[in-house]
Amino acid sequence: MAKKKIVIVGGGYVGFEVAQALDELADVTLIEQREAFVMPPAAIRALVDPTLLDQITLPYDKLLKSGQVVRGRAVSVSQSSVTLDTGDAYPADFIVVATGSSYAAPFKPSGDSIAEFRQASADVSAQLAKARSVAIVGAGAVGTELAGEIAAAQPGKSITLISSDDRLFPMYPAKLGAQLKRKLEGVGVNVVLGQRAQDLRHMDQPYQGAVTLTDGTVIEADLIFPVIGSKPQSSLLQNVPGVTVGSSGRLKADAWLRPSDYPNLFIAGDLADVGDGMTIVATTRQNPWLIKTLKKVLAGQPVERQKPYSPWKKAPILIPLGPVIGNSWLFATVGNWITRTMKGKDLFIPKYRKAFGLTSERG
């Protein structure tokens, strides 16, 4: 009997893992516009250690043993196929769309070219090395980790981290934000809370200049990083029948991560407005559910008879401030050793290199 065809659009943290898990059970096609996977959390540290770029850009050519990875840009989805901008159409019994989100450079590729991403990262890294003062606008995970990485690798710089919230990570217990603030200040970072930058010249790339805060304070810096959040890449599905776009730009989905009138179309990751945050941690809950569900569906069981997806009540979060210190929330606030051991030391680089068939640092 011929294997069922699954087309997965997007080779990020959702797409590559689901494709690999189903590779032996289905005829898998993974459509990805870039030739390599990039690890965004490690891209933060690559700004202070450019040698990491070789380790965190992972080619797709060894990912699947049976299925295929097609480099291309999907432009339309029907109930039975996915069509690329070349006009090529890939038939599907089931479709998973996990197109992720965009972010300010150089933390994610802004286009299809990995070479351009590497060059952008190298250029900003060189600017950062020369900068005496740095302002980071936005104190989510990226901004906070960036402040910690710079302070750890390039001590002596003037670093200002600006947040519009009154405390760091306000969605978590106050202890987490308070400890991170104390540790940042301990390594010389000036943490400004409850202030919004009003005159950012660019929203998508670092630049030299000044920002004015809501209280009138002007902060000048040799390098200003705007890091104020991800933008979901939802345009591919916005015209599919039954799709509803939420206020954040993410797509609503039913209890089985289906966003449309098509019963065989699933979404996950940053695209899916199902109660999870736009974090990699969200995929550690969504991916196992999606893989398990699709395996049962491939075996002939109806989707509606499967256990519905249940989002994190409050997702864990790991915030290293460089390779040594940091804080995390793992259903309780934990400190340096656990954060360093779980993430700060190697940023999951060996794990993902192994997943992509790269068993050595340079493999």
Automatic annotation (TrEMBL):
Domain Pyridine nucleotide-disulphide oxidoreductase N-terminal, chain residue ranges per copy: 5-43
SUPFAM superfamilies: FAD/NAD(P)-binding domain (SSF51905)
GO terms, molecular function: electron-transferring-flavoprotein dehydrogenase activity; flavin adenine dinucleotide binding
EC code(s) of this entry: 1.18.1.-
Enzyme class: oxidoreductase
The entry's keywords: FAD, Flavoprotein, Oxidoreductase
Pfam family, one: Pyr_redox_2
UniProt-listed InterPro entries: DHPH_N (IPR039648), FAD/NAD-bd_sf (IPR036188), FAD/NAD-binding_dom (IPR023753)
GO cellular component labels: cytoplasm
Domain (FAD/NAD(P)-binding) ranges: 70-274
Family matches, as PANTHER family: APOPTOSIS-INDUCING FACTOR 1, FERROPTOSIS SUPPRESSOR PROTEIN 1
Family per similarity comment: Belongs to the FAD-dependent oxidoreductase family.
Protein name: Nitric oxide reductase FlRd-NAD(+) reductase
Origin species: Falsiruegeria mediterranea M17
Gene of this entry: norW
